[in-house]
Amino acid sequence: MFETLSDRLSTVFTSLRGKGRLSQSDIDATAREIRVSLLEADVALPVVKAFVGAVKERASAVEVSQALNPAQQIIKIVNEELVKILGGETRRLVFAKNPPTVIMLAGLQGAGKTTLAGKLARWLREQGHTPLLVACDLQRPNAVTQLQVVGEQAGVSVFAPEPGNGVGDPVGVARAGIAEARGKHFDIVIVDTAGRLGVDTEMMAQAAAIRDATSPDEVLFVLDAMVGQDAVTTAEAFRDGVGFTGVVLTKLDGDARGGAALSVRHVTGAPIMFASTGEKLNEFDIFHPDRMASRILG
Ligand code: GDP
């Protein structure tokens, strides 16, 4: 994960080792190097500018310290700015006062929504919840069956459309799923929705209609981290078309650069809440900005 960025930054820091004091030109050169590292990692330009600006300003203002040498001081600043750009604090799920808590998943086709539905359900079940998965992706062939398979692996129930039960009508299925959860005392409903390969007005309208029908407590935008800074355009389209309360980064296991991960929070203002790091249901965790920053810095 993020190997390219880690290697690049580590080279920048190595070049500062042994320096007794940093001149303004050292700081400028370091800022330039960090800028190039972030651009190579496919981080969105406004994010790069904000990040490098903050590092430069803080590095210039730093007092000569007994405890830290200049290289350590820069690493400390970069670490703190990385934590900030990744969202600062860990943001946890908000549960409804009156169950069921409704969590809706939105994102492009292939982003990993259905897999995530299983991961999230398993994780919640392990914490003593009784989630119900609701299959509202009626677009992609096999999406319903796939959800039933992950539901079984996760050991949770799946509500799928059946004749007379909303076939072909994702909004109807969503409504019926919530009624089922109420009636059978499931405390969490996870609504899987349809995506398309690209941003599409019909898909957005459908997701917005499901949102309106279910009044979700959380809308999680599921984002394939491997798409780099294209993520920014997609995230903005979902923010404007559906709106979301949090982001889930998927496929971090295959993301050597980190551009999407480092851009999405700053661009959308929404916190990254979970990270998916593989196809298996247990390859999933809460997203911790501080741990991710430490990982990037090696
Ligand atoms: P959806 O169309 O958004 O529902 O996407 P899927 O859940 O069907 O996932 C698309 C593909 O990505 C599947 O082959 C998944 O196994 C795979 N996938 C999902 N999450 C991850 C992940 O975190 N890492 C990797 N390597 N593959 C993933």
Can you offer a commentary on this structure?
It contains eleven helices and eight strands. It is α/β, with parallel strands linked by helices and 298 residues long. It has helices at 3-14, 24-40, 45-61, 70-85, 113-126, 143-154, 170-184, 201-214, 230-241, 259-268, 289-297, and strands at residues 101-106, 131-136, 157-159, 188-193, 218-224, 246-250, 272-276, 284-286. The protein has an eight-stranded mixed sheet, sandwiched between helices. Guanosine-5'-diphosphate is lined by residues 107, 109-115, 195, 250-251, 253-254, 276-279.
Quick structural summary:
Keywords: Cytoplasm, GTP-binding, Hydrolase, Nucleotide-binding, Ribonucleoprotein, RNA-binding, Signal recognition particle. The protein has 298 residues and is of the alpha/beta class.
Helical content class:
40-55%
Count of DSSP E strands? 8
As a whole number of angstroms, the C-alpha radius of gyration is: 21 Å
Uncertain parts: none
Distance separating the two termini: 11 Å
Family: Belongs to the GTP-binding SRP family. SRP54 subfamily.
Main location: cytoplasm
EC number: 3.6.5.4
Subcellular location: Cytoplasm
Core attributes:
298 residues, alpha/beta, 11 helices, 50% helix, elongated, hydrolase, cytoplasm, 7S RNA binding
